[in-house]
Design a protein that fits this description.
Blueprint (H helix, E strand, L loop, with lengths): L1 H7 L3 H133 L5 H12 L1
Helix pairs in contact: 2-3
């Protein structure tokens, strides 16, 4: 070993001193630089990992919210369809009811008009009979040349008209 020391001109004391200095520098660097750096890096890794987990949870919640939204939309569409169908049914019922009511009113009006026409017809017929009776009396009076009592004439005319 001495030959190596003499060839390379190594001083053992100096070598040991450099080793101690290197160990001291390494310890100081470890405590002052590497340890805080490792702590910052592990905190950062934990933070990134936590962020990824939260992102996955948010993604899962988003998917759940989308599914819930689709379900709510489907329910709203179903309810809207029910409301529309109900409205149509109610509208049809109301329309049919109004049509029936209008037909009933038209029937009443027609019946009233028929009754009025019947009354007018009867009145006109009565007037016609009266005028005919007067004409027959007038014709009979001219033909016979004499006029009997009005009561007898009316009785005769009514007999012939019936």
């Amino acid at each position: 070993m001495e030959s190596i020391i003499s060839v390379f001109h190594l001083d053992v004391k100096l070598l040991i001193a450099q080793m101690v200095n290197f160990a001291i520098v390494l310890a100081v660097l470890y405590w002052l630089a590497f340890k805080p750096l490792i702590k910052v890096m592990s905190d950062r890794s934990a933070k990134i990992e936590r962020g990824l987990k939260e992102a996955e949870e948010i993604s899962a919640r988003l998917e759940g919210a989308k599914a819930e939204q689709a379900q709510i939309l489907a329910e709203a569409k179903r309810e809207a369809a029910e409301i529309i169908a109900s409205s149509r049914t109610i509208g049809e019922d109301k329309k049919n009811q109004l049509i029936a009511q209008a037909k009933e009113e038209i029937g009443k009006v027609i019946t009233q008009e028929k009754e009025q026409l019947q009354a007018e017809k009867a009145k006109t017929l009565q007037e016609l009979k009266a005028e005919t009776a007067d004409l027959v009396v007038a014709v009979c009076a001219k033909l016979l040349g004499e006029q009997g009592s009005k009561e007898i004439d009316k009785n005769l005319v009514n007999k012939f008209l019936k």
